[in-house]
Write a structure and sequence with these properties.
By secondary structure, this protein is an alpha+beta fold. The chain has a domain at 68-163: ApbE-like superfamily (T-fold), CATH 1.10.3980. It is built from 9 helices and 17 strands. Helix 2 (48-69) runs antiparallel to helix 7 and helix 4 (94-109) packs parallel to helix 8 (282-295). Bound molecules: adenosine-5'-diphosphate and magnesium ion.
Length: 336
């Protein structure tokens, strides 16, 4: 519930339309619960019927991708890859090859801070279940030894994926929502839409501008003040993703345990409160925001600067805000 509230607050901010503001009648917005989260699509510049058709098809595409990429099904591509770990290569869809290839690229670039083979640690910590506790050290160590993107073989020709060791598990929680936002945006375009915003929770893709000369306005959630924004960005034909420690977490002995894990320690990454990344695609902004979050302000900003077209806003563990030079002065409302 809490997460949905936060996300809805964000979506309202995304609309750039506060109290007293009335949106023009050619802006259409719909929300569905998909991929375990709130997906909101906003379409502008087309009539209601066309907008409906386009949005239906886009939601359908996200539902289809969820079926392929979910961690929580034995018959999904991911379920089959994980079940065959240490045994054999598994034939998968082109979509899975595409996501895993991008995941490997970001793993390489981030020195493993982003690692799609994080599954054993995600399962151990169990941020999806209600009963939360810090697992014993030995179990964290055992799971950590199974996390290594270099032991995941992705073969685009044969369209197969193989995990080297039994017990390894791929989890795409840090990249699949971004990919889905890109694909949904593509579907909207195929339906003749040239102005839209697709928000899969905090992974957002903008198509065109909201109206001629008016970019989309996206708020960055304040990591410690639910429902308020840290600052906001204007985007057109671009993507933005935020990874934060404030959505799925518990606190024990004054330590905040949350769902973004540092593969180097097997524990929740502690260098940042949130990382927001702008990039040409959402698959990239999503994976980079997770990587930048884990790396923290110095290395995270350096990573994002090394990627063409990418920019970042990182809130460090003390609440200090770091931005890439390309964004200096461009985050609106940011207290300096
Ligand atoms: P959110 O899911 O809240 O949008 P992220 O995009 O940062 O946030 O993804 C976090 C999810 O990614 C976790 O729930 C988990 O499934 C997975 N994950 C956690 N740590 C890592 C990591 N170091 N590298 C790749 N994926 C991760
Ligand atoms: Mg991410």
């Amino acid at each position: 519930m809490r997460k949905a509230g936060v996300v809805l607050a964000m979506v309202l901010l995304v609309a750039g339309c506060g109290a007293g503001c009335r949106e023009s009648s050619d802006v259409h917005r719909r929300t569905q619960y998909l991929m375990g989260t709130v997906v909101t699509i906003t379409v502008a510049g087309v009539g209601g019927d066309d907008a409906d058709r386009a949005m239906n098809a886009a939601f359908e595409e996200i539902r289809r991708l969820e079926g392929i990429l979910t961690f929580f099904s034995e018959s999904s591509d991911l379920g089959r890859i994980n079940a065959a770990a240490g045994e054999r290569p598994v034939g998968v869809s082109a979509e899975t090859i595409e996501v895993l290839t991008e995941a490997r690229r970001i793993s390489d670039a981030s020195g493993g801070a982003f690692d799609a083979t994080i599954g054993p640690l995600v399962s151990l910590w169990g941020f999806e279940v209600k009963e939360r506790f810090v697992p014993p050290k030995e179990e964290i160590e055992r799971a950590r030894m199974l996390v290594d993107w270099r032991k995941m073989a992705v073969d685009p020709e044969r369209r197969t994926v193989r995990l080297d060791r039994k017990g390894m598990k791929v989890d795409l929680g840090g990249i699949a929502k971004g990919y889905a936002a890109d694909r949904a945006a593509e579907v909207l375009r195929q339906h003749g839409v040239s102005r839209a915003l697709v928000a899969v929770a905090g992974d957002i893709r903008a198509i065109g501008e909201k109206s001629p000369g008016v970019p989309w306005h996206v708020g960055i959630q304040h990591p410690r003040d639910p429902g308020t924004v840290l600052g906001s960005l204007r985007i057109a034909d671009r993507s933005v993703s935020t990874s934060g420690d404030y959505e799925r977490y518990f606190i024990e002995d004054d330590v905040r345990y949350h769902h973004i894990l540092d593969p180097a320690t097997g524990r929740s990454a502690a260098a940042s409160r949130s990382a927001t990344v702008l990039a040409p695609t959402t698959i990239l902004s999503d994976a980079l925001s997770t990587a930048a979050f884990v790396l923290g302000p110095e290395k995270g900003i350096a990573l994002v600067r090394s990627v063409p077209g990418a920019e970042a806003v990182i809130v460090d563990r003390e609440g200090r805000v770091h931005v890439t030079p390309g964004l200096a002065g461009k985050v609106e409302g940011l207290a300096s």
